[in-house]
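Dig into what follows:

_____
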Amino acid sequence: MHGLGNDFIIVMDEGEKLKELARYARQLCDRRFGIGADGLVFCSRGPGGYQMRIFNSDGSEAEMCGNAIRCVAHYLYSRHLVIGDLLISTKAGVKKITPVGPGSYQVNMGEPIWNSALIPVNCERNECLQQTINVEGTDYIIHAVSMGNPHCILFVSGTSRPDCVTTLGPLIENHPMFPQKTNVEFVKVESEHKLLVDVWERGAGRTLACGTGACASAVVAIRLGLCTSPVTVQLPGGQLVIEWAGEGPVFMTGPAVEVMTGKISREYRQSISSGVY
């Protein structure tokens, strides 16, 4: 399944039976020797709804993923496993999803976290806005926020934005300023209600879209007075609409698409479990 080209393997009701979930993620997400995806999502029934765990293609576990949660919602709604609003528990808390059209969902993403210690980011100030970071001898102005997972926002020109992603992205992701690493968004303000965003995702690299990254970019732009809600975030894979009143929760609306279903062969599962892969 994918949300704007940010693709995921959704596994239902199997996560508790499997060991070495990080290994499964690395191998199933491999685009040559596995199925191929940006991430692997384990979904199961939980108290009062469903719960999901998200693993990036490098095997690291993410707290939250806006595109993945819409994919899980689409899986459940399209199979009539849920009616009305849906609650999904993540490592970043319980999120409420509301269907708003065929294959389109609005997610209550919760409130943005500005406190430096909670993001976390090594910053002397309580909030890490308009902060200087030095990367290989060059200073950049960044803005840090958490949407349940850490994000670093850089506002750049239209011509330099795509070129920065694969060069500067991994350097900031692994910068000592971010003790748990970080997602990195390169943002151009197109208008009062539109942003152009390219993403370097922690644990996955360059992706076509990032839901939490779109939210992070929008709330920083609104906070700095560069945009007004609602904000359409144009990512390489498509558009998300982000709404934020300047306080309270952030709402993200966007699509999810199911591409295929299938079964992993017993032989391949055994090779993963045994480490033969």
Q: What stands out?
A: The longest helix spans residues 66-78.
